[in-house]
Amino acid sequence: MDLSIVVPVYREEKNIPEFLRQITPVLEGLSIDYEIIFGLDPSPDRTEQVILEQREHNPHLKLLKFSRRIGQPMATLAGLQYSQGDAVIVMDVDLQDPPGLVADMMAKWREGYDIVLAQRRTREGEPLIRTIGARVAYWLIRRIAEVDIPENTGDFRLLSRRVVDEINRLKECHGFLRGLVALVGFRQTVVHFDRPTRFAGQTNYPSSGSLLIAMNGLICFSSAAVRLSTVFGFLTVGCSLLLTGGYLFLKLIGHPIVWSNPTIVFLVTFLAGMYLINLGILGEYIARIYDEVRLRPRFVIDRMIGLSPEGGARDCPAGSKTR
Hints:
Distance between the termini: 19 Å
CATH architecture of the largest domain: Alpha-Beta Complex
CATH class of the largest domain: Alpha Beta
Largest sheet: 9 strands, mixed
Oligomer: single chain
């Protein structure tokens, strides 16, 4: 197998036919053996039926259907685990990741690059608040994370087989692909593109999901948040000591104390707020430690079509259906 395309999907019945109409000529023009693996969260629409209908005309299409909704990041990791290609490309089905860029990415891979990142120059049709939030998140991650994650790069990327194998060996269950790829390393390059608007429908990835991804990038690949909470703790204690010293000094010299109850209330609520923030930061780290030590399977396969069960034996229960 020369190339695997991993495509996580959920409620995408309108986008799949057009996605395949655009990407199939690109892949056939490369004269390679390929597979397209759809990682399907159980959908209330006809997404599964559409994939199966398209597979009747194109046997290169394959399906992983999960037993419950596990989210885009984990569906992507599942696709990587079952992929067989010497190169693997992760992309979305809504055509915001242009299929025409696949040929450029494959050309870079043949030049010897293990990782080819698709970096956005523009983001058409994206709300301003989301664009600002993404820039802030990338800015923070690049400055405090222990790995280098280039700005404006999503999960749309090409990975060589040895990169995929190394990612599959990692045990993290948070599914932050951008961080995992950066952690593995190897030689990488970038191809640029202008991100178009979504072909049909609305995004199935809410702002809360993007926020969770950003938090995983900040927490799972850096301990800066804990150190920052410690610094704020010392600063707060220092300010409290200075305030207490000032209070005692004024009391000793008989100077009238002008502070009123609202001032005391403000100080108490400020200190309580700082305490809760620091506790929340520690809680985020502890929650992720808890997720890791439970050693639960990252996903469970309900139905597998066109794929070998051995590719995901670690996470595939004995009762999973294959075909």
